[in-house]
Structure prediction request, 183 residues.
Amino acid sequence: MKARFPLFGVLAFLMLVVGFAADTMSDQPAKPLKKRKSQKTDITSNRMEYDYAESTIVFDENVKVVDEEYTLTADRLIVFLEGTNDVRQIHAIGHVVVVSDDRTGRCPKAVYTKKTGEIFMSGPNDTSVQLTNKDDKIWGREITIWLDDQRMVCVPARLTLIDSNPAKANGTDKNGEEKRVLP
Prediction:
């Protein structure tokens, strides 16, 4: 089943999870958000259920969200609405994977709350939630990202940073000899 909803432009939050958190790990300044070329987001799943009375849309089994900025896959996607088309909260559940360029996010569950601009990613163990940007990687059981404040908390945290220019990182001494700087 294929569905198109203009309200799913908000699903760009998942791309931001990968983008913001991965940019936080780099020494480059955070990139400003790109203006979207279109509002088109395609969502496919084996089953979709819309409950008008409960203001929810549920996508079940083999969920795939394809947007110009990212691709998301999950077992289930639940969208909670306010009114007719305003997103209140989005839950991506089960084998959640978000890919955008060379950045990837993986977790068992991700919840976006529009009002607070918060993304909460969680899993059962200390390496369940993973964000990567090229070779850099952060793991945790829970990662919370506040989009408006451009901050992130990872509990417990494990971070691996790979310097793309080791000569620059090591530097040289006063005689021009390469010196080793401790990590």
Notes: The chain has one domain: 2-170. The two ends are 50 Å apart (CA to CA). Confidence is low (pLDDT under 50) at residues 4-18, 24-33, 179-183.
